[in-house]
Design a protein that fits this description.
Helix content is 29%, strand content 22%. By secondary structure, the chain is an alpha/beta fold. It has a single domain (7-141), classed as HybD-like (Rossmann fold, 3-Layer(aba) Sandwich).
Length: 147
């Protein structure tokens, strides 16, 4: 089993909406490769309560599908706490969860977001061919990184 020493990876999405399931598929691939499932979490969306969850880790990696055209089909970038938080009954972005974690729990995990370009968002299970290609490239690059 491959360890993720004090790293939490959160796959965000919905696998019943085609390419919106990229975050979950990323985690499924890591599980197949023997990564510790305790450090992998699928979520439909981030919520205020996730600030407490991420406070327990040194590093947090958010993985999500995006509609934006990305040069290589994916992008990995460091993110930081937002300056302000706007509460909603729905999802909040990762940088706002980081802000809450810092301000409520006095913890500031190192954070990254992995964006994977998707193309099809219909209600159906299964990634599009292009999204699958982007996922494969993303996983290959991820395995080369050290956090």
């Amino acid at each position: 089993m491959k360890k993720l020493n004090n790293i939490l990876i959160i796959g965000i999405g919905n696998n019943t909406r085609r390419d919106d399931g990229l975050g979950w598929c990323f985690l499924d691939n890591l599980k197949k490769e023997g990564y510790n499932e305790v450090n992998l979490l699928c979520k439909y969306q981030l919520m205020v309560e996730d600030a407490e969850l991420i406070a327990e880790f040194e590093t947090v990696i958010f993985v999500d599908a995006c509609k934006t055209v990305l040069k290589n089909g994916f992008e990995i970038e460091r993110i930081y706490p937002a300056e302000h938080v706007a509460f909603s009954t729905h999802e909040i972005p990762p940088n706002q969860v980081l802000n809450l974690c810092e301000n409520i729990y006095n913890k500031k995990p190192k954070a990254f977001i992995i964006k994977i370009q998707g193309y099809v968002w219909d209600i159906e299970i299964g990634l599009s061919e292009k999204a699958t290609e982007n996922l494969t490239k993303t996983i290959s690059s991820f395995k080369l990184l050290t956090f």
